[in-house]
Amino acid sequence: MRRFLIAVLTLSAIAGPASAETRYLAYNASDRVTQALTRGITLEAERGLFGAISVRRIISTSNRGQADIRRGGPDEVRRVLPAGSRETAVYSITPEGGGRALGRALCPGSDEAWLVLGRVRLARPLTAQAVGRWADGTYRHCVQLSYDWRGEWAFPPAGGASDDANAPVAR
């Protein structure tokens, strides 16, 4: 038992700093509604030791906007999703920086906004549900956003990537 404990502690000490890596995952809008709101996005994500991906920031790949998002939100957000929605990871859109503009674009008239993402996986489509909370305290589903995988950036996009010369490399 003692050897096992020492081995686990040694492994965690070594793997701890290397357990998370930042990835930049690019997606193109796959339907008209999504394209009208966001032509494409890049997710700044952190991939954990066991492969789980957690999103930290949304960067517009066609404009210069970006917004930080944080994991977590009230359970009411999931309750107002359309029937059959399989997205479960709730992210609150922080109002700092471009977050307020993103929240207003996704849920016009709401006081707060959240994104509920499906499982983020490399080379797979992504669906996001936007939910807002209005001044009277009601939560409402705003829009479903659908994206197709585009690729992965080696570095974050610098000020938007409006041409294909700067397109991410698909992995």
Offer a quick outline of the entry.
Helix content is 20%, strand content 38%. By secondary structure, it is of the alpha+beta class. An 8-stranded antiparallel barrel has the order 1-2-3-4-5-6-7-8.
Explained architecture:
- This protein is α+β, with helices and mostly antiparallel strands.
- About 20% of the residues lie in helices and about 40% in strands.
- The chain has helices spanning about 1-20, 30-35, 75-80, 100-105; strands spanning about 20-30, 40-45, 55-60, 65-70, 90-95, 110-115, 125-135, 140-155.
- Strand 3 (about 55-60) and strand 4 form a beta hairpin.
- It starts with a helix and ends in an 18-residue tail after the last strand.
Q: Could you name the key traits of this structure?
A:
single chain, 171 residues, alpha+beta, 4 helices, 8 strands
The biggest sheet amounts to:
8 strands, antiparallel, barrel
Helicity range of the residues? 10-25%
Strand content is: 35-45%
Low-confidence stretches: 160-165
The N- and C-terminal alpha carbons lie at a distance of: 42 Å
H-E string:
HEHEEEHEHEEE
Number of helical segments? 4
Structural topology:
Elements (H helix, E strand, L loop, with lengths): L1 H17 L2 E9 L2 H6 L2 E8 L5 E8 L5 E6 L4 H4 L9 E5 L5 H8 L5 E6 L8 E8 L5 E15 L18
Antiparallel strand pairs: 1-2, 1-8, 2-3, 3-4, 4-5, 5-6, 6-7, 7-8
